[in-house]
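Subgroup meeting minutes
Present: P.N., E.W., G.H.
Scribe: E.W.

1. P.N. recapped why we're keeping a running log of single-chain structure predictions: easier to compare across weeks, and new members can see raw inputs and outputs side by side.
2. G.H. added today's entry (456 aa).
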Amino acid sequence: MHQTLLLLFLLLSPALAWLPMEDWESGNVTTSGGGLECVCSVFLPDSSFPADRVQHMQQATTDLRLELEIHMNKLVHYGGKLDIFLGELLDLTVRVAMLESSPDNYIKLDFELLRIELREFEALVSQLKGSLNSSSPLFDSVYTEIRNMTLIVNQLETYDKSNLEVIRIEFAKLQKKLEECQKEQEIIKPDIGNCNHTGIMSVSKPTVIQLNAHLNPGYLYGGWGKDSKPVRGHESMYWYGAYSSPSVYEFYLYSNYNKLLQRSSFTHHGLPQGYEGTGNNYIVHGNAVYYQAANPVRMTKLNLTSSVYSHRQITKASQRFTYTYSPNQYLDFSADEEGLWVMYASEEAMGKIVVAKLDEKSFGIEDEWTTGAFKPLVGNAFMVCGVMYATRPGDLKTEEIYYSYNTLTGEERYMSIPLQKFQDTFVNLHYNPTDQRLYMYSSGYYVSYNLRFNEE
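Output recorded in log:
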């Protein structure tokens, strides 16, 4: 009986091999002799192994893993930025709440500054969202919060216009009194305009004023400050210039500090073709802008009263050496209590900084001194009382004033005076003798420092 069934199965197996898979799952066989029923179930695997599909799956898995690592790195990178941003946003929320509780105690400038900060926060959120390529509800909620805060600020500014107008008038009177007191203080303060000290002792923490007048952090190159030798009637004037590349093609002048903050009532000077500049270390001295013109590289003086340009070339100045943070900065202008200076590096000095005293009338060089500071290792340099001070990078948050050269005595000194940075890089750093402050342009922001001198 069993032999018969086996023989029957062997005879039918070639035909069964051609049946569809569902026909192989079960079959019934009944013997002819007495009701015995035999049920057979047969399962056959797929005879061909899908190697191409496995290989495709492995490649897809590898690509997915790499993409995941990229997104994880992005999250780690932007996580730190987001923490800082959330802290600043919390501080701004508190300030808006204070405004909402007592709007009469604030002036138009406060509202304008809040609007500026809100626009900066909105731009930052947009940047983070675009970089992460994400539409997270967190970003949407932050956007909504910023819009709500903007509406509150706008509503508060229109609240009780009469009271606000009275406050503005009183503030203007107070500001005038403060300016008079400041002038009197500068007159009686023996340090201003004098050099009764032996050098810089320390530098204050940075005062971060605000983002540049373009309200764009992409304007990484530029400068700002005061006239270091103001003419009568322009003692309170501030200047500013910023660009998205290390070039110079325009300047803005503001009659006072508040106009600079409000970006209003300014005078614009656009440089004509052929007079454009390059680099960043320009200054305003005696109502004239001193900057480095391009093609060819030369000293250029723009008289802001007559709009007359003057040029002088320093043939020894090399275009192979520039500061650590500043591309194309071959000529660095500076002004102090002793007058007007320009610093450059030469092949003859093997890349070390050369300090040259300028004659303001002839726009020529009076004298020169070769220092021991190798320019490519220097973050920036400035003059104070005839002494050149050079900085160098410390860490991400600290610059160090490490070297000085006294043009009066020829003395070199090495020191370690920390200079706290607002950003990891900066492109314009100069001293102003009218208020004994350092002015820095750092990644699009106005920054300043107070100096303390050793009066022994």
